[in-house]
């Protein structure tokens, strides 16, 4: 006798698992991030009409089911080409696992991939991401360049198909199409990230955010819960945009309460994790850290404060508040800071005098890459707050020391990830920069470079960035070149320095040269501006003081080609001094105003092109 229960929801029956039969949607589906398709109508015994009794019962009759956000889509793709199947397989088996949170993989791998069977636009976007990621992975591992080029061509072809289809669907107002299109826009954002096109990536992301804001009021609670993976992907990409677009704040988090500002962060109850893996807990803690940083950056410009005019920087109280909340986040993040040998190495380094710390730094091996990247992010932004607090102190020495310690810890973390990248075939959890599209190590290394104790630390930072290479929009080669130019300015472009100079301290953080890298424009030129606080200029001045400007292109290996350097500050010897250009200051003021309410202001301005022409 067949003892299988036939009263479960349609989704659990398809998955062939036991349903708890909770209504209106079962808990098993919610826990696995599946859309519960509801329950079949119960069979009833009763008299049948003569017509019904005389008709033949269809053996394959499909029971009725409740409407789901993805049901009812009628667009069918025309064919499954043999060359496309490996790309589809790569997305569901590899890309989805590496681009998205572990607890959200089922949404992208199962629901979105299943949706692509009936929706051409989703299918082409999925193929594009899978193909471009496969090409990046082959290049990252130095495998089969011809196959990598073939995958990239197929990816660009699918991406073009998706772009051609997209406009006809953006005007749709039905919920089921809206959710599908938001998933497509996120996938297209990842495509542009892998093609290293910041403006294209942020256009797709901004379109997804606008579509979400327009439609979320009409979504039911079930539909909103099924969109949590979309919210998470948007938040991480929004955070990346804030780090790449100077002076910008979040375009995704419009309300301060979403950043935990309505009640103090430390008064909130710590989350309770039940039935979650360690990686899921780390991802959740990182999510809270990103929320905290985005909220403070929107309220007080803590991320870009060091590059702001003196009278527009966050106050000492605001910096101390940010500092305290990050410290409290660490105290409430047990999964990220779980006991391991790597943390022991970091703690032990604090007791070693700065000038005696080894370079290259000791390798820190964390149990997971997620923990290493989250701690590096914590160090970078805590160091940012420490540096601004240091600038307000009569005796900045204790704060400078804390900033140096955080910078050195990040170098140790980077050393461990580089080892995992170099010997990926031996590591259980290898680090592949091509997977670190939204959260990578290179930006954290670059942020710490401004707070290195000595030239030896900074030189190794440059080597580390070149070893990491490209992480989507975050290009380790470009970050390394930006820092190398700082060295040229400070040393007067002298190529060979004595070991004593290399090992000696670089001085207080307050008067360091800090670089500002602009997003890459439509051409291949990179532009960076270099700032230095000038004691001879009144602190109440509201202008941004630019010491130098560099413009260059890069060779295929990431090295600098055709560098053009303009120096405005006479403190830098060995360079001809160019008169400072007032129009550049006006453009910087216009840029800050354009992105004051979110990085999306960068998309609608030509200021970047004007800065290139100056």
TrEMBL record:
Coiled coil: none annotated. Residues 8-36 form the Zn(2)-C6 fungal-type domain. SUPFAM superfamilies: Zn2/Cys6 DNA-binding domain. Keywords: DNA-binding, Metal-binding, Nucleus, Transcription, Transcription regulation, Zinc. The keyword Transcription applies. The keyword Nucleus applies. Residues 43-72 are annotated as: Disordered. InterPro entries: Fun_TF, Transcr_Regulatory_Proteins, Zn2-C6_fun-type_DNA-bd_sf, Zn2Cys6_DnaBD. SMART domains: GAL4 (SM00066). Transmembrane segments: none annotated. GO terms for molecular function: DNA binding; DNA-binding transcription factor activity, RNA polymerase II-specific; zinc ion binding. This is Zn(2)-C6 fungal-type domain-containing protein.
């Amino acid at each position: 006798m067949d003892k299988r229960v036939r009263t479960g929801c349609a989704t659990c029956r398809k998955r062939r698992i036991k349903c708890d039969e909770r209504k209106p949607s079962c808990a098993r589906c919610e826990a696995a991030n599946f859309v519960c398709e509801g329950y079949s109508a119960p069979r009833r015994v009763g008299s049948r009409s003569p017509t019904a009794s005389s008709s033949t019962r269809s053996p394959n009759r499909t029971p009725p089911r409740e409407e789901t956000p993805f049901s009812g889509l009628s667009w069918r793709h025309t064919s499954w080409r043999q060359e496309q199947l490996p790309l589809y397989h790569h997305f569901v088996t590899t890309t989805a696992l590496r681009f998205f949170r572990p607890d959200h993989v089922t949404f992208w791998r199962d629901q979105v991939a299943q949706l692509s069977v009936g929706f051409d636009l989703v299918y082409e976007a999925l193929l594009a991401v899978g193909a471009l990621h496969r090409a990046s992975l082959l290049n990252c591992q130095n495998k089969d360049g011809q196959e990598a080029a073939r995958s990239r061509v197929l990816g660009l072809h699918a991406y073009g198909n998706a772009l051609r289809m997209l406009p006809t669907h953006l005007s749709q107002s039905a919920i089921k199409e809206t959710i599908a299109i938001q998933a497509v826009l996120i996938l297209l954002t990842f495509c542009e990230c892998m093609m290293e096109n910041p403006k294209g990536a942020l256009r797709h992301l901004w379109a997804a955010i606008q579509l979400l804001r327009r439609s979320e009021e009409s979504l039911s609670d079930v539909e909103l819960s099924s969109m949590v993976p979309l919210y998470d992907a948007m938040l991480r990409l929004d955070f990346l945009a804030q780090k790449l677009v100077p002076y910008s704040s979040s375009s995704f988090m419009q309300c301060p309460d979403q950043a935990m500002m309505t009640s103090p962060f430390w008064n909130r109850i710590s989350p309770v994790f039940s039935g979650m893996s360690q990686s899921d807990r780390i991802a959740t803690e990182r999510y809270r850290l990103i929320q905290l940083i985005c909220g403070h950056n929107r309220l007080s410009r803590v991320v870009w404060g060091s590059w702001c005019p003196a009278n527009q920087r966050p106050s000492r109280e605001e910096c101390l508040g940010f500092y305290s909340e990050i410290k409290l986040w660490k105290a409430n993040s047990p999964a990220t800071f779980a006991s391991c040998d790597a943390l022991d190495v970091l703690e032990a380094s604090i007791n070693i005098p700065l000038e005696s710390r080894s370079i290259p730094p000791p390798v820190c091996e964390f149990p997971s890459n997620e923990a290493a990247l989250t701690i590096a992010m914590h160090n970078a932004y805590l160091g940012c707050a420490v540096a601004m607090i240091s600038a307000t102190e009569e005796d900045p020495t204790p704060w400078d020391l804390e900033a140096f310690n955080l910078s050195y810890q990040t170098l140790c973390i980077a050393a461990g990830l580089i080892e995992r990248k170099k010997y990926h075939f031996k590591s259980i959890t290898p680090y592949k920069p091509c997977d670190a599209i939204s959260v990578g190590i290179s930006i954290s290394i670059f942020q710490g470079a401004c707070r290195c104790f000595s030239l030896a630390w900074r030189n190794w930072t440059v080597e580390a960035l070149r070893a990491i290479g490209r992480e989507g929009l975050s290009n380790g080669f470009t970050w390394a070149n930006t820092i190398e130019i700082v060295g040229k300015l400070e040393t007067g472009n002298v190529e060979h320095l004595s070991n004593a100079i290399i090992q000696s301290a670089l001085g207080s953080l307050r008067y360091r040269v800090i670089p500002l890298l602009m997003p890459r424009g439509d051409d291949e030129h990179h532009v960076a501006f270099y700032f230095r606080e000038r004691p001879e200029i009144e602190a109440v001045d509201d202008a941004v003081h630019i010491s130098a400007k560099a413009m260059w292109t890069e060779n295929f290996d990431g090295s600098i080609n055709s560098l053009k350097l303009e120096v405005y500050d006479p403190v830098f010897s060995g360079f001809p001094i160019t008169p400072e250009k007032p129009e550049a200051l006006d453009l910087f003021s216009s840029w800050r105003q354009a992105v004051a309410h979110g990085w999306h202001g960068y998309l609608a301005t030509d200021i970047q092109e004007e800065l290139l022409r100056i």
